[in-house]
Amino acid sequence: MDVTRMERIAIICSVGGWGGQEQNTVKTVSWLREAGVDITLITASDSRLTTAARELGLPLITFDHTGKHLVWSDARRLRAVLDEHGFTTLIIGHTRHLYISVWAARYAARYAPVGASSKLRLIYWQHVQITMSRRDPYHAWFYRQLDTFIAPLDYLEEQALERTSLQCDQIVRIPHVIDTAPLLRSVITRSDARAMMNLPQDTFLVGTIGRIDRAKGQEYLLHAVADLRRDGRSIEAVLIGENSREDYLGELTALAQQLGISDAVHVRDHTSQIEAAFRSLDVFAMTSISEPIGMVTLEAMAMGVPVIGTNSGGTPELLDHGRVGRLIAPGDAAQLGEAIAWCMDHEEEVGLMVDDARTWVRERFDRSHQVELFTHLLYSS
Tag placement on the chain: N or C end, fewer CB within 10 Å? Predict the structure, then answer.
């Protein structure tokens, strides 16, 4: 693919958060730049995404706005930025920017300076589920203006076709991915990992990694661990991540005390020592009620940690519908406990499942696959 063609690409993600969506964005831009793609980030001036991009030396333009829908002044400012830098393609990296990006590309072009491009290719890169119908005339018009809609998983593509005015020929499949290489070749031992994370050495540890939030369902893990301990199992829980603004961790602390397992629940802040975090676990539990695209699930599989996940959102596809991980009903602590007990009692089967999972992630969800598909999309037309 000829990436030397005169294509100038921008991706807008001008928000203040620093969750999986923003982290995926900066990683993907970095990988595309390494592959020779001329892509620039458009970010909020005061955001962790901007800080991360600067630390990586990525080209960026800051753009702040407060509205979501038809803010004409923001659309005109955005169009001016795009024309000033000669961008030919705009990737919409956050749902909040759909409306002003379409407005800037399709309507503000009428007021662009003489000589400016009248056509800007618009690509929407999906990160979250479409939870309600967007087929009303207002939303339908915006979705029809998109040249391409990137759906990362089968169920998200089906959802988009069902709940929006998008047509099949507008949608392409490009998965969200991880850099599998460092995880697949990691040599850190479980003993060293637990020492680094200050976790007990001589017990079975099952844990979650990610924001400590009600939607992530960590309470079901505590109930499952409490039930297993009552059955005489030597097992403890690990929760790694930042607390939610609503202080869900406070609720979990009270729950652990109520269940009588306070001394068997280990809480650790979000850590950059991702290999140690995963390697310290005997089982990784994706307990979210509905996780759109669980990057930590992929990381756990690449690290060789058996995964139990909820049968909702994108998790079934990530686990190849139960072939490379155990699936349970969301919000069902009893099923979770049964799946954990199965992992404890079936070492040989778990080992085979883990081997299949590592192969699955390497072949389907590695950064090289995403870069190849993105490059083809950006330079093939």
Answer: C
